[in-house]
Amino acid sequence: MDQAEALAALAAKEKAEEQLAKAANCPPWRHAAFGLLMAGIVASPAFSFAIRTAILIAVLAAIAILVQSDRKRTGMFINGYRRGRTRMVASGLLIVVLLLYGISTYYGLALGDSLTPLLLGLAAFLIATVASVIWERVFVREMCA
Questions:
Q1: Residue 107 Cα to chain centre, angstroms
Q2: Of 107, 100, 94, 112, residue with least CA distance to 34
Q3: pLDDT tens digits, 14-73
Q4: Which residues are within 8 A (CB) of 81 and not within 5 positions of it... i.e. 6 or more apart?
């Protein structure tokens, strides 16, 4: 491979990454939907076992629907745990949501308090929605760098 071919290959790679960055722009409802999924998981200990199970089944089904929606809207689904700085955002969010869920489970199941899990679910919604926006911005920055 000569220098001209190498430069052409690099240019093609950069163009593909720019196209990925453009396709990754999510509408606000998509970020809110992700936040709602996380909120559902965190708030679920506020409810009886049957309702809690239904919530978790609904969240799993909604994940599949969101993946299909992304593929239909953009032609692809980008895994949140991909290499790079986006993984740090996703890992940080995972830690926060797991902590919120742990606290929610303790208050909801051990103490019988149903208000605290609902409040923690609201916090999870806000945190996850903001984290989704941040993840997208980091991804776009990585693709356009």
A1: 25
A2: 94
A3: 666 666 666 667 889 999 999 999 999 999 999 999 999 999 999 999 999 999 998 888
A4: 87, 90, 91
Q: Which long-range contacts (CB under 8 A, 24 or more apart) does 55-63 make?
A: 62/33, 62/36, 62/37, 63/37
Question: Tokens at residue 125, please?
Answer: 């919604």
Residue 38's identity, in one-letter code, is M
Q: What is the CA radius of gyration of the chain?
A: 19
DSSP 44-100: GGGS-HHHHHHHHHHHHHHHHHHHHHHHHHHS----TT-SSHHHHHHHHHHHHHHHH
Model's pTM, two decimal places? 0.83
